[in-house]
Amino acid sequence: MSASATPPIDPASAAHRPAGHPPVRSGRLGVLLMNLGTPEATTYWPMRRYLKEFLSDRRVIETSRLVWWPLLNGIILSTRPSRKGRDYATIWNNELDEGPLKTITRSQAEQLAASLRETAGDRIVVDWSMRYGFPRTKDRIEALLAEGCDRILLVPLYPQYCAATSATACDQAFRALMDMRWQPAVRVAPPYHDDPVYIDAIVSSMRQELAKLTFEPEVILVSFHGIPEEYLKKGDPYYCHCHKTWRLMREAFGWPEERFRMSFQSRFGPDEWLKPYTDETVKELAASGVKRMAIVAPGFSADCLETLEELNGENRHYFEGGGGEHFAYLPCLNDSPEGMRVIRTVVERELQGWI
Question: What number of other Cβ atoms are within 10 A of residue 280's Cβ?
Answer without folding.
Answer: 12
